[in-house]
Design brief:
eight-stranded mixed sheet, Rossmann fold
Length: about 250
């Protein structure tokens, strides 16, 4: 049975921003969301039990209690929600998971920030652009977030969530950053946080540790990225030019 279980009382949120961190190319969404949760000391708010998610338990160093692989964190003070996922999502499970999450998000009247990496060979700071559903375009303009430089498509669970937001007309942003196509990319994740997530959610996130620990983070996340490649039929979140998708 699909459900999202609160761990305590429902927190009072006023049209919050929700940040989505499903794994994808460069792990940019996951790294950015994990760092956001850590830096803002967000509370573990709800466990996600959607059909199609692996029935596994996650354990943490030095902690006694198991956790489900997908969780929602909240900060009442910041009017902020975040989805953290420690597993890749199987392609056949995406529709069920998106349906399970979307109703819950709509119940909170949240503006969602859906995160994706764009594989790219780059020099210098990764480029960032955004797209919108509902009235989200006003946020892109208010925070001077660039429009896409070419036609493209977002796939995986993030693309499915954006597709559902398009159908329902809810307010959301799809934030896309250039990233390393082969390895975890903390620099690209820091661009997401500094130039988009922080300004839109009106939070101040220190990314200095993310940059200083880039090598360490890459090593830690590389095993996760390899696991994503090994698991069959995984639909990894990523953006790509439309000409390459067709």
């Amino acid at each position: 049975m699909s459900q999202i279980r609160l761990r305590g009382d429902r927190v009072s949120l006023d049209e919050p921003v929700l940040v989505e961190g499903f794994p994808g190319v460069g792990l940019v969404g996951k790294i950015a969301t994990d760092h956001l949760i850590d830096q803002l000391e967000m509370d573990y708010y709800a466990s996600v039990h959607c059909e199609g998610l692996p029935r596994v338990g996650i354990y943490r160093q030095g902690a006694q209690h198991l956790q489900p692989p997908v969780r929602i964190y909240a900060s009442q003070a910041q009017d902020l929600l975040a989805i953290q996922s420690d597993i890749p999502i199987a392609a056949q499970a995406i529709d069920a998971i998106v349906g399970c999450l979307t109703g819950w998000i709509d119940d909170y009247d949240a503006t969602s920030l859906f995160l994706s990496g764009l594989p790219a060979e780059r020099e210098g700071t990764p480029a960032l652009f955004g797209v919108a559903t509902g009235d989200g375009a006003a946020l892109l303009e208010a925070h001077d977030i660039d429009v896409p430089p070419e036609d493209g498509v977002v796939s995986g669970p993030t693309g499915a969530l954006l597709n559902r937001a398009t159908q329902s007309g809810t307010d959301s942003l799809g934030l896309v950053v250039e990233c390393n196509p082969q390895f975890p990319d903390p620099e690209a994740a820091s661009v997401l946080l500094e130039r988009a997530i922080g300004p839109v959610a009106d939070v101040n996130v220190d990314v200095s540790k993310l940059i200083d620990r880039a090598t360490e983070i890459q090593e830690q996340r590389s095993a996760f990225a390899e696991r994503m490649q090994e698991v069959g039929e995984v639909e990894s979140t990523q953006a790509q030019p439309l000409r390459m998708y067709q």
